[in-house]
Amino acid sequence: MAFTSSAITSKKDSNVSQGLILGRYELGKLLGHGAFAKVYQARNVKSGESVAIKVLDKEKILKGGMIGHIKREIAILRRVRHPNIVQLFEVMATKTKIYFVMEYVRGGELFNKVSKGRLKESVARKYFQQLISAVNFCHARGVYHRDLKPENLLLDDNGDLKVSDFGLSAVSEQIRQDGLFHTFCGTPAYVAPEVLGRKGYDAAKVDIWSCGVILFVLMAGYLPFNDQNVMAMYKKIYRGEFRCPRWFSSELVRLLTKLLDTNPETRITIPDIMENRWFKKGFKHIKFYIEDDKLCSVEETDDDVGAYATDHSSMSESETELEIRNRIGPLPRPASLNAFDLISFSPGFNLSGLFEEGGERSRVVSGAPVSKIISKLEEIAKLVRFTVRKKDCRVSLEGSKEGVKGPLTIGAEIFELTPSLVVVEIKKKGGDRGEFEEFYHRELKPGLDNLMAEESRSAASTADADADATDESCLHQDWE
């Protein structure tokens, strides 16, 4: 669903722009419009945050047979949450309208920047690296954009790239029995030769071709395949006829030749792109996680959540706890669970749900001190090379391995059940459910069970010592 910029709004649009959507968002200026929707800048009246809202007309969608298309777009945007992809925050609806509340990207289209002339190599490389990171993330989740071009690449306040407009995207579930896609789509100058052949295509390889055209445009300032006659342009694309300008380095020319290979079978893959010498210069893998349904950068939140980078491998347990207290202060008392909390943990009034296991959430009752539970979670995380983030009685464990649904991220929150017992609620915040269950049963639960056993033995030995001391005291009194 493409949108064209528009600085002119009708009187009706002007009235709409001053309205309040469902009491939550104040509409501002019109940013663009398409056949079925208009996009406005808006403001969240509660937080003051700027957002973009795509307003779709239900009647037009129904008449155009676009219901399935809209549902698929929503599902795709929920599936691909990445720092270099425009975020969908929420979807709202009234009797006549559907509202997509999305991230507002202030910097405009990358196309506007390229239209002024070619970019410096370092700048073009940065944008290409971010584009490939986003496309790789999408492909790992079975999502294929199929309309990548500079007009669909936006720039934020920091000059970072954001992929937008997933209206023509496809998901792996749409692949036919032959393992290929057959829908003709995309923008002519960026479309891959196999799409022109109309015999079925691998959508991942089509996206890679488009990335190659984009890289050429960023570096050259013009298209590799261009002609006023569309059919003549298609012939050039089909034959792979393009010429690199003299200012392209030999490394870049070799990469572009692999990206714009007319044979999809031998065209370079994303893993190979990421290992390419030209690509790797200055490249950094993006680390992020989902917290409270929001996308968070690792670098931005380290100080906020009390993360620390000290190596504790040579410290004793007591020294480690003391060092932690010196850094973050005494731990606050965990929130207490009342009767209503206990009931809310379980379906109906069956309190067995308090101790449920499986799925994407589990709970463990422990008699260990909160500080020792947190230390045990950190110890487990260190063994499997997970990052730890802490805030009060909440701990987040984040894996670095890129799974099918993103890195595995686990949240643990500690609640007070009685003065001597706590409930540790563990839930999957990101990643694959199967990976979560395996990690929980292989690492987390045994570790917490061992901690309980250690505490029980410690309590028993303390009780025995107290008993011996009492017996000795009584014996001493008898002797006197």
From TrEMBL:
<keyword id="KW-0067">ATP-binding</keyword>
<feature type="domain" description="Protein kinase">
    <location>
        <begin position="25"/>
        <end position="279"/>
    </location>
</feature>
<dbReference type="InterPro" id="IPR011009">
    <property type="entry name" value="Kinase-like_dom_sf"/>
</dbReference>
<keyword id="KW-0418">Kinase</keyword>
<keyword id="KW-0808">Transferase</keyword>
<dbReference type="Pfam" id="PF03822">
    <property type="entry name" value="NAF"/>
</dbReference>
<feature type="binding site">
    <location>
        <position position="54"/>
    </location>
    <ligand>
        <name>ATP</name>
    </ligand>
</feature>
<feature type="region of interest" description="Disordered">
    <location>
        <begin position="451"/>
        <end position="480"/>
    </location>
</feature>
<dbReference type="Pfam" id="PF00069">
    <property type="entry name" value="Pkinase"/>
</dbReference>
<dbReference type="InterPro" id="IPR018451">
    <property type="entry name" value="NAF/FISL_domain"/>
</dbReference>
<keyword id="KW-0723">Serine/threonine-protein kinase</keyword>
<feature type="domain" description="NAF">
    <location>
        <begin position="332"/>
        <end position="356"/>
    </location>
</feature>
<dbReference type="InterPro" id="IPR017441">
    <property type="entry name" value="Protein_kinase_ATP_BS"/>
</dbReference>
<comment type="similarity">
    <text>Belongs to the protein kinase superfamily. CAMK Ser/Thr protein kinase family. SNF1 subfamily.</text>
</comment>
<protein>
    <recommendedName>
        <fullName>non-specific serine/threonine protein kinase</fullName>
        <ecNumber>2.7.11.1</ecNumber>
    </recommendedName>
</protein>
<dbReference type="InterPro" id="IPR008271">
    <property type="entry name" value="Ser/Thr_kinase_AS"/>
</dbReference>
<dbReference type="InterPro" id="IPR000719">
    <property type="entry name" value="Prot_kinase_dom"/>
</dbReference>
<dbReference type="InterPro" id="IPR004041">
    <property type="entry name" value="NAF_dom"/>
</dbReference>
<keyword id="KW-0547">Nucleotide-binding</keyword>
